[in-house]
Amino acid sequence: MYQVLYRKYRPKVFSDVVGQEHITTTLAKEIETGKLSHAYLFTGSRGTGKTTCAKILSKAVNCLHPVNGNPCNECEVCQGIESGAILDIAEIDAASNNGVDNIRDIREEINFTPASCKYRVYIIDEVHMLSIGAFNALLKTLEEPPAHVKFILATTEVHKLPVTILSRCQRFDFHRVTPEAMAKRMNYIASEEGFTVTEEALSLIARIADGGMRDALSLLDQCTGHGDTVDADLVCSVAGMTGKDHLFSLASAVNEKNSAKALELISDLHGKSCDMERLCSDMINHFRNLMIVKTVRSAESLLVCTADELQQYKDQSGKFTLENILYCISLLQETMANIKRGVNRRTEMEMTFIRLSTPSLTADSENLLRRIAEIENKIKGGSLTFTPAAKSPTAAEPAESTKAPSPAPEAEAATPVQAPPPPQESIPFPEEKAAPAEEELPWAEVMQELTGLNMPLWGVLNGSSAVIQGDFVLIKSDNPTLSAFIKTGTNARDVKTAIKNVTGRAYRLGLYNASAQAPSAPAQSKKDPLENLIGKARDMGINVDVK
Fold it and tell me: Of 135, 274, 383, 535, whose CB has the highest number of CB atoms within 10 Å?
């Protein structure tokens, strides 16, 4: 019968335990000198060797011929413990035996001397799962057990144990196994089993296992089911690491300040049954990887990725400032909390990516510092220049009064100055004059056209209406983000195209103002702090020229 690798190659002596020399050396010396404690506490993350060391310790204290503190694994006691024939060694799962009655049974059993061994050993795994009553019932027994009884407690969550339990045990903290130690052990097992594993595959498995030797061997076991040769591509396929293109695409949309592209990607992923909470978690990890690449010289030691993905991370991290990456992580973590208590997870993700792609929507200090850092980088790169402002005419230099005043630019060309301005199409507004009569517009047909042109924009305009007033189509909507959203990317162009397809005529766009019944600019509740900063620069005689 086939036995999985982590069971087949479970260490039988202390010297075989990987990465826990600080513990195994101490335990072997205690056994060799006979200075044994009555209660041990093994704590650490999963797969680091806690239960394995507990079983080795239970054999070593009862072995008839110990070798340098290790069990010989040849005497009848060692073989009986290994096969489970000797009942003096009891392994108890506290997750399913966590009541007071279970501890009372142990208290009654310890009064009997061992049948075959020198010590009766109780290994209580996941001891933090015991109830408060069970802990209280164990206290006195754990402090002063009979001389023939040893307790070994194991847990992954030591902070859940009462202090009264901790003070009665000799505590050993198991560390995460280093990738180098894991790779060495897996290479030995591969040679014993007769299959080939590449160095890159060993390194990748060790990083995926995150310090757990059992997880590493389980993943290696899965890979060997596909053939006798294990490489990095096979490890990626088995571990489910493929298919990260959508993460890079979403990050690129944020960098390009293209919210329409981001919403299209989210819509596509939602249609493929992608869980929005998992997507948010993956994006946090993605920006974390960008942060690591941005700040650490040897990032490959801290990332779980292939060589090609590492190069992609390096290329994309160069397009972000560190302030921008940290802001994205912060906002996504806030979104993760909102998703857990929100109603519509997709809406939360869409709102987040609109905020990430449209800096002017967020006016907090963190976002302002991030945008200032972007301007500084543009100055360093030469894409942002400052030129002296033109002097205003004085009495000595009167302005030419004979020149005809230049015509005012059309409203379509007038857009607020921002630094740096994202590519956008402005929403024009006609000059103030008597408003012409309003005409009905088949807005439902326009919305139907939009479903084929720009689905995210259709979602923003859902529930809106519109009328024709002269050369303008005025949009009525209660959505406060409409003004900023329709200026982003190609959204205004798509609305005009849909209107022309329905009416056969090209119109300009505006927002319906109920009080004036004329198109008006969208009101802003708060002025952008960055615009204030640029305005102050102009007042000081400096013109900001954004290239």
Answer: 135
